[in-house]
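Suppose a classmate hands you a notebook page containing two proteins, each written out with its sequence and a corresponding row of structure tokens. How would you begin to make sense of it? This section walks through that situation. The first entry is reproduced here exactly as it would appear on such a page.
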Amino acid sequence: MTSAPDYGRGIDAERALKFAVQRIRGDRAQIIEGIIEPVSPTWDHERAAKLVRRQIEERVDELGCVEGSGNLDLPGSANWYVPDIAVVPEELARGGSALLPDQTLLIVEVTSQSNAETDRTVKRRRYAEYGAPLYLLVDRVDHSVTLFSEPGKLGYTRREGPYPFGATVRLPEPFGLDIDTSGLV
């Protein structure tokens, strides 16, 4: 009697999933708790990210960093994120590979109707678990901005906000600057 072949033997499912998502043609994609999701922001979403990006870019340059939406790997989980903005040291941005959340100085996510709960809960928890020092949530659905800091395995231990659009939000050091959210209204 012959047995059916075991096609799953020896395959690292996490590695295979992350390998596959990097090779999707056309739109970029991310993996949220094992589910592949396309990354295709709308223009109003891009506008909100641009308003934050323009306010931080001079300080980012002074810090010897770059801001962008490169891939973030969360090893040991079925997660591969494409944040709206991540600030990383320039030397880490060379080489083309994904970075880890704890290699960032700041991560910004801008919600849309389709992903608001994911950005508010899942990504916030995972970014903290993986050591991202600052997480700025621009919630276009609730018209608010919240800054999370002091990451830990159970989440961020410090939360500032939510502040309504129109308020000024202070980014702590190493940024030491205010984000004017009036353009988000």
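The notebook's second entry, a different protein, reads as follows.
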Amino acid sequence: MSAKRNSNQNKKNRAVYQEFGTPDNSAAFERAVPELPPNQQDLRVQATKSGRKGKVVTVVTGFQSKPETLAKLVKQLKTQCGSGGTVKENTIEIQGEHKQKILDILTKLGYKVKISGG
């Protein structure tokens, strides 16, 4: 009985086809994100309600930074706006309508920012 169990475990770990490299190619599948300096990034700030049950959220898009950089930036924006927020897929979302305040903060940090939408 134990021999049968061992053969099943070997089947799970056995590679059927492998062209080259090691079986663990997780590093190859990580998305490469270029870390551009702030003055080379074109950001857009807009307030939106769509899909948020009528609540206004200020969204900043256009980042080309690593997640660690965005995490530091969102923490700073949340503190200075006095509200909550998050990072989702290279965009920053801040709760409430803070377009002008976020524009001023990001401009002081050296980013090229424009207000988008009405």
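A careful reader of the second entry would note: Residues 67-81 form the longest helix (15 residues).
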